[in-house]
Amino acid sequence: MSGSLHRRLRCCLLGIMTLLAMQFVILVLVVRLGLIDELISRRLLLQQQQLSLHQHEWQDFVTHTPDQPHAFYQYNRQLSDNLAAVRLLPTTRHESCNRRRYALPHASLAKLSVVISFHNEARSMLLRTILTLISRTPQEYLHELIVIDDGSEDVGLLASLERHLTAAYAERGRPRLIFSRNLNRKGLIWSRNEGARLASGHYLLFLDSHCEVNDGWLEPLLERLTLNSRLAVSPLLDPIEPETLSYMAGNELLKGGFDWSLHFHWLPRVLADKETLAQPYTSPVFAGGILMISRESFRKLHGFNPHLEIWGGESIELAIKLWLCGGQIEIVPCSRIGHIFRAAHAFEFPPQYDQEQELEQELQQLGSAQATYLRNSKIIAESWLDEYKYLFYALKPSAREIPLNLRPVSTYDPAQIKAELKCQPFDWLMRHVSPELRLQHANLSALGTLRNAGRCLHVAGTVPQLQLLLTSCHSLQVTQWHLHHESGQLSTEQRLCLAVDAAAKQPQLSLEPCRAGQTGQHWLRRNTQLQHARTHLCLDNPLKDQLLLSRCRPHAVSQSFQFALEMEA
Ligand code: UD2
Ligand code: MN
């Protein structure tokens, strides 16, 4: 009796477990195959009458994607292909943004032209960007969409896109669709300028080709722009994870900034008294390159600097130019646009220098991406930094060797723009917009690369496997050092400090997290020597590329270390 009860119980339990396991497998499958998204999107498709492209057309377009390895896109292309054309996205903005009514101008006075330039974007990703934009933008404001194929390898893509979109939106006549293809790649900056040239709306929005606008993205931006004609705005960018394509909330406590090497950085900001997370806030530069500006302001500023090539720096230049010449920049957190932030460039950069050019060897060997960015940065420094450009060259000494030989691509001339628009000198920006630029060197007695006999002191590897060595000064990743005025700390950008372990039998050089009041991290500058305060020993490179500490010997070449930039005492 009890035996059969046992058996039945075991059977029952086994049954339940099998059922649970099956449910789990089904759940995993549903999630993996994006079926949930599919279901949601079907509902969405029914709800959103504006979206006129049918599921089979999406499939037809996407299945012609050429097969490429992961590195080609730097995100999960298969997953993108299987996700819905338009996904339901989480609401990431502050809930008060949903309740607000935005003061908008009549649509006939606020026509929007969206410019998307792409190079080698996956079909599903590009189409999702476009369809999401069309379905989440009030029809009456979305005047036109300008899509520029910047020499992509998938040669059939643009024509096919044009066919599908034109068929889908012809009836309602909106948005106006403009397609243009660069047979040879001309770069993002040229293409965005071209897009702006083709545009006819009142406002321009520059968008990357792997974005998903979130609900209600336009109204908060438009409201700000119509309140203040000197303004240009960015939405708050929500990151989309490249592998899972999950849509996450961006951070409202960050603004856009740059350092003296003209690299973009997110900077922390502090909320003022009573300021809420939903309020627009000023920012030294745009949230990356996704920005909205009146076409008239963009024209007055002569657009993006056409001397900048391929990729990089154009939105920083536009920001500097805008601030100095009477404009303002805001990030508007009630407007959300998702963007895939990729870990690495998905495309090659055309070589900047040919072997014939007389250049320092290291510069010649610089990767094309680095060389392009360095050249673009040099153009910006030369155009706008005035007497502060020495700080740029201190951090990027190899930029000095870059020949600019600007091709006469246009009449673009910063000096003329400054005169035309009565622009302020760069110093004004440091005083009123980017005080952090001033702080970046106020408490330093030296900064930049640290050179001994033509080689530079460099930290290789990551914690805990750090290595201190001497390397070529022209590699762009070479460590930039900061010698702090008061603490005597010699630190890297990662806040690692050069220290000496005095307890060991032989004092040893080491790298440790910078901490206030650590005497082991205190260095003294004696002419070109670096003397450790506690042990009185000097940094030395007696045998080629071997760093150690030894008794200080004035005039010893192996103990002479030059910073790229030394402040006057
Ligand atoms: C960032 C900006 C981007 C732009 C760029 C610097 C964000 C979210 N994005 O891009 O707006 O300011 O930095 O220039 O901050 N592309 C071309 N032709 C090329 C190379 C790229 O059309 O030769 C397209 C590309 O397909 C993409 C866009 O340009 O749509 C930006 O390139 P990215 O997405 O690879 O680089 P990202 O996101 O760092
Ligand atoms: Mn991008």
TrEMBL record:
Q: Where is the Glycosyltransferase 2-like domain?
A: 113-301
Say if the entry is tagged with keyword Transmembrane helix.
yes
Query: What Gene Ontology molecular function terms does this protein carry?
Result: carbohydrate binding; polypeptide N-acetylgalactosaminyltransferase activity
Q: Which residues form the Ricin B lectin domain?
A: 448-561
Q: Which gene encodes it?
A: LOC111596147
Q: What name goes with this protein?
A: Polypeptide N-acetylgalactosaminyltransferase
InterPro entries, per this entry? Glyco_trans_2-like, Nucleotide-diphossugar_trans, Ricin_B-like_lectins, Ricin_B_lectin
The EC code for this enzyme is 2.4.1.-
Q: Which family does it belong to?
A: Belongs to the glycosyltransferase 2 family. GalNAc-T subfamily.
Q: Return the broad EC class.
A: transferase
Cellular component terms per the entry's GO annotation: Golgi membrane
Species of origin reads Drosophila hydei (Fruit fly)
Question: Where does the UniProt entry say this protein principally localizes?
Answer: Golgi
What's its membrane topology? Single-pass type II membrane protein
Query: Is the keyword Coiled coil assigned to this protein?
Result: no
Top-level taxonomy: Eukaryota, Metazoa, Ecdysozoa, Arthropoda, Hexapoda
| Cofactor(s) annotated in UniProt | Mn(2+)
Recorded metabolic or biological pathway in which this protein acts? Protein modification; protein glycosylation
BP GO terms, sorted: protein O-linked glycosylation
Q: Which residues cross the membrane?
A: 12-35
Name the UniProt key words of this record, in alphabetical order.
Answer: Disulfide bond, Glycosyltransferase, Golgi apparatus, Lectin, Manganese, Membrane, Transferase, Transmembrane, Transmembrane helix
Q: Where in the cell is it found?
A: Golgi apparatus membrane
